Each structure stands twice: as structure tokens, then as C-alpha cells.
Inverse folding.
């Protein structure tokens, strides 16, 4: 593997969005970006005022269900769609009205969009030729890039002679060889099977570290976003619901949507019945109590609380001490190899999912129909949308 | 088939149903294929053959022996040569003009929805389905009304007019199947609008452009009906042959026909070969 240089001199004088050599300037900034489409006479607002900024060298993901506006947002950054309102800046330079061929970002298309009438080499060299890079340098850089993506020796192949994974690598090489300030990837692994996808996730991460380029990554696959990203913007219905690092998104979902979209989570609602010091108590039914951290709560306040299934323990009797304790009946047990998944129906009728590692089966393997107690630490209760819990 | 045969066929069919059926189907298809090919090719074979006929009189209709004389004297009849050159020139010009215009129309129709695009599509298909005799007559009225002198250029205009729809329809069909993200990828990689067209769009739609243009050439070179209305004093190859039928068609016509056909076959072969390579 060759180490790729991160010099950017040869990307052409015409490109807009070169850094004014101030590292504190964000690589990409969106400010109140709105996009309306008119389809069959009706105005559809695909993106509803999105603002965020992406730091230089960051691996940034746009995560959300299909149709939430991820692609549209990305296409506006690339320049294929013009925002209805709002501004887009690359390295502090406003590029809202700059055409795509003069923006210093490159895109990897979901369909790869490789030129079928050109071979691998010609595909990868396309961008450099447009920028009138001298021939010897083109040869060197294309060769280097093909080595990085592991396609040396396939220069003369046509795209359709390659496997899906190889086509994906060509698409990646074709964009990266230009040393763009940022690389935009629209569900780049969507067409690959699971095994190849996981392999390519690691590969992509490695390449990103190696070339040190800002990646903006669109995906609807939450596990993909969680494994690869430095930060994630979770989108829903044209708006960003939460922007944070993967841990925060997982541990402290900002909205009920984020909580349900990312992984499995349990949603409990009730009213604050007691506050002592830093711990608030929510009564759940006659016997249950949920404890959560946070002095910001008021007595009688209605709260929604999420708990991740792997944080909950199943006990045969009521636990003592400052922990949440909720009684219920095991309604389903599913063996999933490395862990078991329990569905527990609470007294009030709500259902809670619990994951338990198979390693310590001695503690509390419950059977279907057993009456059990669920227990977890106060800091694993997370009140949605409450600033005090952060 | 009489009952006995039916019975016999029935028993054999029952004994070896699949092989018997496959045999019949294979053989029948074979025979049928050759019948169709013969049907299509026989008139052409006759044309080619009579180009080698050592005919003496004015009529080239009975076989009188083999000769290569007509190939040697291909251009001996001045009027015929002029007519052939006219036809080739008109067909070439038609191919180029209709090729360019039709490609642009096909691109626009395949790619964009614009004010009047529906009407445009309608007009295209109307032009294709319109009877030639009507088109010829109306073109004549138009040229006369506008006091345009009939001749070579009116013929070219008329030919472009009726063949451009074919090019547009062929190109449009091709444009529709080209992935738009290819063009976006080119733009994304720094290609200007023109570079994107030259390096990506055009190569992608080229098979359609080529097929459409060749179709325009073929339509133009053998058009009689419309040409007859608008050509004025300009005589084309088909017009000359039509005029010659009463006094006897010279063997040179067969030779020219053979050569034109030969070029056509060559293009078809190259196309098939190129198609397989692509
Ligand atoms: N060119 C377009 N014309 C009309 N509506 C569009 C267009 N592109 C996207 N949309 C609409 O905008 C919304 C967001 O689409 P998209 O950005 O592709 O979502 P995602 O990539 O998150 O699946 C969808 O409702 C989609 O139907
Ligand atoms: Mg999408």
C-alpha cells in the first residue's frame, strides 16, 4: 500500500472552495437550507431548513429512513440541486450558486455511475484529465490510487467485467484521485451483500484515515453509521433530529424518533413523583419505580424515558437500593446466539425488551411466564428531550 | 392428414413424445427460416444476377449468358450517372442534416419535459405515419406557394423533413435508457457542459445516432414518391429508373443496385460485429 500524499495543489485553479489555510474554518457549512420540489403541480418540501457544519477531515454521516431528504441534502452540497433558500459554504466560501464542475468536492454515486464505454484506467483518470493535470502526474496518481483500492492489474477492464465490490472501488478511486476537499458518498455500499458491505466499511474507514479527506456519508443503515462515523446527523422528514457522535446518539437520543430509529430501545412514560438530591423517581404502576439522574426535573412533570435493552437486568425478586425496579411477566424468550432477547410485559401492559449475554446465564435465566423484576442504574434512564440529562 | 396417418403419428407421439416433438419443431423452424430468407433474398438475387447478363437488346429480362461488361461500362450512360450522383449527394446531405437535427430533437425529447414537448412528440409520430403521397403533394403546394424554385435543394429539404422524425425517435429511445447519473458524474469530476456531452452523453447515445442516420440515408436514397413531387428538373436514381421502365432498364442499374446493396450489407455486418464487441 502506498501512502497517498495529501497535497492538493493540482486540483486546478478554477475550483471553488479551496481552503484559505485556516483549519478552524469548517469544510462544509449548511445554513438554513430548504429544498422544495414541484411535482405534478404540488410543492413538496424535501429538506426543511437544515443547518450544520462539518469539520475538516471528519467522517460525517447523514442517517435516516428512506425519503427523509438525505440524498437531496447531499446533492445540494455537490451542486446538482439548487437550494430553495439557505446558503452552502465550502471552506468559508459561499458556493450556493457555483456549478458542480467548479466545486471542490466529489461524489460517489449509489449506482456507481461508472462510464461504461471507458475502462478502469480511463474512468479513474477522467477527473484529472478535465483539470489538465500533466500526463506523467496523471499516470502516477491513477496508479497510486488503483493500488490503494486494490485494483492494480485491472486497468484495462470495462466496468461491467468487474464485480459489484470492484466497481465500488473504481467509483471510490475515481473520486478520490482528484484529492477533493470532501468526498460525498450516497449509500455507497447499498448494493453489496452483507459480508462485502462489512468488509468495505472497514476499507472505507481505512482509506479515509489514509487520505485524510472529509467524508460525508449518506446511509439508512444505523449500524453502518454507528461503526464508521465521527459524527452523525439523524434526519427525519426533511429535518435534522439530532447531531452528535455515535455514542451520544445511541446513549442519549434527543427525540423519540432517534431512540426508536437507532437500535432497539424501550420507551416508558410517567410523571416525576419524587426528587431527592440528584435522583428523580418516576412511579410506574403500583409497585414499579424508575430512577433517573437530573436535578432539572419538576415534581409532577410528565417525562418519556428510554432505556437500552442491554442495560436492563432480569431479577427474580425486587432489588434493593437506588436502582430502577419494575415488575412484569416474561412473555417471550428468543435465543439469539451470543445473547438472549426477552420480552417482558409490565403491569400496565407496556412491553420492554431486554438483552442478556449468554455468558452469565447463572444470574437470572427466566422462562416464559415467570414473574420477574427488571432493574437498571439511574444513569441508564434517559429522559428524551430534556437538556438536564446531558 | 388422413386418419391412418393421424393414428400412426399418435402412436409414435405417444411412444416418444418429447424427441418427436423436438424433432418436428427444430426441423420445421429450420425450413421456415430458409423459406423466409429465400422470400426476402430472391428479388435481390435476381437483380444481382441480371447485372451479369450479357443482354443484347433493350430489355434485360431473359438470361443470355454471363458477362462483366456492365461493371466495366458502369458509368457509360451519362444521365444515369448524374442521377446516381444526385441521389448519393442528397442521401448524404439528408443523413448529415437529419442526423444532427434528429439527434438534438431526440435528446431534448428524451431528457426534458418542456412547453410543447408533447406536441413535438405527436408531430414526430404523425410525420412517420403520414402517407408519402400526401406529404409529397403538400410539400409541393408549399414550395409553389412560397415561390421556392424546385430542384436539388427542395429535394434535400423534403428528405430531411420526412427522415428527421426517424432519427429523433431512434435517438430518443436510446437517450431514455442512458443513466442520468453518468452525466452528473462527469460534471462532478470537473467536465464542462460541452465536455460532458462530447465525452459521455454522445458516446452513450452513439448507437442510436448511427442507426438513425443510416436509416435516414436509406430512406432518402430510394425515395420516389415525395422526390417526384419536389425535385423539379433534378433527376435522382429512382426517378431515372422509373422513367426508363418504358424504354427498358439498362443492366447498369442492376450493377448500381448491387453495389448499393453490397455497401448496405457491409454496414450491417460491421454493425453486428461492432454490436457484439460492445
Ligand atoms: N427531483 C425530485 N422531484 C420531486 N421530488 C423529489 C425529487 N427528489 C427527491 N424528491 C422527494 O424528496 C424527498 C426526499 O428524497 P431523498 O432526498 O431522495 O430521500 P432519501 O435520500 O433520504 O431517501 C422524497 O419525498 C422524494 O420523493
Ligand atoms: Mg437516497
Amino acid at each position: 500500500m502506498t501512502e497517498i500524499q495529501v497535497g492538493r495543489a493540482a486540483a486546478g485553479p478554477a475550483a471553488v472552495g479551496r481552503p484559505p489555510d485556516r483549519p478552524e474554518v469548517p469544510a462544509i457549512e449548511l445554513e438554513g437550507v430548504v429544498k422544495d420540489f414541484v411535482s405534478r403541480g404540488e410543492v413538496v418540501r424535501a429538506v426543511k431548513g437544515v443547518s450544520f457544519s462539518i469539520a475538516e477531515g471528519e467522517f460525517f454521516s447523514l442517517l435516516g429512513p428512506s425519503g427523509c431528504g438525505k440524498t437531496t441534502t447531499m446533492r445540494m452540497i455537490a451542486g446538482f440541486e439548487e437550494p430553495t433558500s439557505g446558503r452552502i459554504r465550502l471552506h468559508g466560501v459561499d458556493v450556493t450558486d457555483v456549478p458542480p464542475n467548479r466545486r471542490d468536492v466529489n461524489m460517489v454515486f449509489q449506482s456507481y455511475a461508472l462510464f461504461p464505454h471507458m475502462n478502469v484506467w480511463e474512468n479513474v483518470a477522467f477527473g484529472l484529465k478535465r483539470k489538465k493535470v500533466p500526463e506523467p502526474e496523471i499516470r502516477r496518481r491513477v496508479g497510486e490510487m488503483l493500488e490503494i483500492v486494490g485494483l492494480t492489474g485491472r486497468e484495462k477492464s470495462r466496468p461491467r467485467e468487474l464485480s459489484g465490490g470492484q466497481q465500488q472501488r473504481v467509483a471510490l478511486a475515481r473520486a478520490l484521485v482528484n484529492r477533493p476537499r470532501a468526498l460525498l458518498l450516497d449509500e455507497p455500499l447499498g448494493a453489496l451483500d452483507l459480508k462485502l458491505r462489512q468488509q468495505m466499511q472497514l476499507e472505507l474507514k481505512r482509506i479515509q484515515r489514509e487520505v485524510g479527506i472529509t467524508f460525508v456519508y449518506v446511509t439508512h443503515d444505523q449500524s453502518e453509521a454507528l461503526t464508521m462515523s465521527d459524527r452523525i446527523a439523524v434526519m427525519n422528514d426533511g429535518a435534522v433530529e439530532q447531531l452528535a457522535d455515535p455514542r451520544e446518539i445511541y446513549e442519549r437520543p434527543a427525540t423519540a424518533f432517534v431512540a426508536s430509529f437507532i437500535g432497539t430501545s424501550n420507551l416508558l412514560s410517567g410523571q416525576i413523583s419524587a426528587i431527592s438530591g440528584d435522583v428523580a423517581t418516576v412511579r410506574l404502576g403500583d409497585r414499579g419505580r424508575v430512577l433517573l439522574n437530573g436535578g432539572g426535573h419538576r415534581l409532577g412533570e410528565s417525562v418519556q424515558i428510554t432505556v437500552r435493552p442491554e442495560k436492563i437486568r432480569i431479577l427474580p425478586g425486587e432489588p434493593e437500593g437506588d436502582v430502577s425496579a419494575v415488575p412484569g411477566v416474561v412473555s417471550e424468550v428468543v435465543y439469539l446466539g451470543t445473547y438472549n432477547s426477552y420480552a417482558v410485559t409490565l403491569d400496565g401492559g407496556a412491553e420492554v425488551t431486554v438483552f442478556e449475554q449468554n455468558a452469565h446465564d447463572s444470574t437470572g435465566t427466566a422462562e416464559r411466564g415467570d414473574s420477574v423484576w427488571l432493574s437498571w442504574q439511574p444513569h441508564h434512564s434517559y429522559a428524551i428531550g430534556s437538556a438536564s440529562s446531558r | 392428414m388422413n386418419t391412418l396417418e393421424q393414428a400412426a403419428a399418435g402412436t409414435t407421439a405417444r411412444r416418444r413424445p418429447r424427441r418427436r416433438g423436438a424433432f418436428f419443431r427444430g426441423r420445421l423452424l429450420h425450413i421456415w427460416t430458409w423459406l423466409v430468407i429465400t422470400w426476402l433474398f430472391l428479388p435481390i438475387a435476381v437483380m444481382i444476377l441480371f447485372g451479369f447478363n450479357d443482354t443484347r437488346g433493350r430489355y434485360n429480362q431473359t438470361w443470355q449468358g454471363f458477362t462483366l461488361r456492365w461493371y466495366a461500362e458502369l458509368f457509360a450512360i451519362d444521365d444515369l450517372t448524374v442521377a446516381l450522383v444526385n441521389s448519393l449527394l442528397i442521401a448524404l446531405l439528408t443523413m448529415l442534416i437529419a442526423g444532427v437535427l434528429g439527434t438534438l430533437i431526440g435528446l431534448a425529447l428524451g431528457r426534458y419535459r418542456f412547453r410543447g414537448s408533447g406536441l413535438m412528440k405527436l408531430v414526430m409520430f404523425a410525420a412517420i405515419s403520414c402517407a408519402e403521397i400526401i406529404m409529397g403533394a403538400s410539400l409541393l403546394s408549399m414550395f409553389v406557394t412560397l415561390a421556392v424554385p424546385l430542384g436539388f435543394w427542395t429535394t434535400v429539404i423534403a428528405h430531411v423533413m420526412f427522415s428527421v422524425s426517424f432519427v429523433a425517435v431512434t435517438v430518443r429511445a436510446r437517450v431514455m435508457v442512458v443513466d442520468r447519473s453518468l452525466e452528473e458524474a462527469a460534471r462532478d469530476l470537473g467536465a464542462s457542459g460541452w465536455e460532458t456531452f462530447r465525452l459521455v452523453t454522445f458516446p452513450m447515445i452513439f448507437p442510436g445516432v448511427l442507426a438513425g442516420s443510416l436509416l435516414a440515408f436509406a430512406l432518402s436514397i430510394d425515395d420516389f414518391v415525395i422526390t417526384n413531387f419536389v425535385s423539379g428538373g433534378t433527376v435522382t436514381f429512382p426517378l431515372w429508373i422509373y422513367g426508363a421502365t418504358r424504354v427498358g432498364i439498362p443492366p447498369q442499374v442492376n450493377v448500381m443496385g448491387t453495389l448499393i446493396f453490397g455497401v448496405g450489407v457491409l454496414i450491417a455486418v460491421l454493425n453486428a460485429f461492432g454490436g457484439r464487441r460492445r
